[in-house]
Amino acid sequence: MKKGLLVLMFSLMSLVLLACGGGDEASGEAEETEVIGEDVEGATELTFWTFVGQHVDLFRDSAKRWNEENPDRPIKLVAETYPYDQMHNNLLLALQSGKGAPDIVDIEQSKYANYMQGEPQLEPLNEYVEPVLEDSVTSRFEMYAKDGKYYGAPTHVGATVMYYNKEIMDQAGVDIDSIKTWDDFVEAGKKVGENTDAVMWNVGTTDYLMDFFPMVSQRESDFFNEEGEVTLDNEKNVDTLQFLSDVLYKHNIAELTPGGMNQTEEFYGYMNEGNAAAVLAPLWYMGRFIDNMPDLEGKMAIRPLPAWEEGGDRTAGMGGTGTAVTNQAEEAELAKEFLAFTKLSEEGNVNLWKVLGFDPPRWDVWESDAVRQDNEYYDYFGEGIFDMLLEVKDEINEIQLTEYTPDVATEYNTNVAENVLRQQSQSPEEALKEAADKIRDMK
């Protein structure tokens, strides 16, 4: 299927979805709307769309700081929160029609390629991005770039780490700092099984971002190459999926994740009761522990991922939202400057941690005292979070995103993981080749 036809079909599908949603106009109606700076005289209005209500907290704080520091150029920020699919569909329709788009918008990383086709209808941010790249995890900016132009400001690094239950690991007689490689992890898992009532780990089947993809990325592999060709069924990916099968059925150190993924109530209860010793997840998953697993406070420790070999990469950047300025912004320069103030400045990056609990893209902030002050994350996990991140900051590989990335996610979450990990009806090689061929046929 050609790219132009794909965009057309997506647009038609979006129209159908909107029609089924109650007859909203193309711009849709937000679930929540908040106005910051409404009472400020002479303020310029900027609209902001997001699909994550928590992100409004960051922009609310930033708008107030902006108005305090720029009394001659105040803004009135209209922040609108939409359901995930509705927002992305509405945005695509608005950009294609040339009207109805917001000034500033959050775009989830797997959707970004839809807005990069042809001439992007987003404003380049190079004048604000390039000065901070030297002190940032650059791979997180490259996801939102095309032809040397940067169109998105990342919300976090999403450094994937291993969370260990120290109580279980101590009971098993395992020093978590001795786990350097995945082979070490397997041997530690055997001790957990022999000496405790827990398993070492869980393997998910409905969210490839929570084990398969980060483990692939840390091997410098991906699902597409730089030319956009499908590499889903390459040798490293097959070997990685075989490893996930082996920890379940050969080494017997893991169980399938209750609920299919580690962001379900079923899993939270399971983990909170001490049924597993480790969780693989991005750093932003800290908030899931705090909100859903209160009994583990003081028991969890954060460490880098085991490497595939000594000296190999020990993390990967997973998940992410790039915030952009659309070309329909009437005050585009003001919108870009405010976005940079919110997410690219030093204070903005500090607030990504303080307000949202995210690992900010600027690693120079990781060295500052501002991110080392006591808060609920240190109370729960202890100190050393940013020291650990500084160790692995150069081990986060770039991810190749295409308009077919969501299709890979669908294939893995619905067919590959089900057939290989749950049903054991296909080998990793068979399942990944079948999925890769389906993606190739879409092009």
From TrEMBL:
The keyword Flavoprotein does not apply. This is Arabinose-binding protein. Residues 424-443 are annotated as: Disordered. The gene is araN. Residues 430-443 have a biased composition (Basic and acidic residues). SUPFAM superfamilies: Periplasmic binding protein-like II. Pfam families: SBP_bac_1 (PF01547). It comes from the Bacteria. Residues 1-19 form the signal peptide. Keywords: Cell membrane, Lipoprotein, Membrane, Palmitate, Signal. The keyword Iron does not apply. Gene3D superfamilies: Periplasmic binding protein-like II.
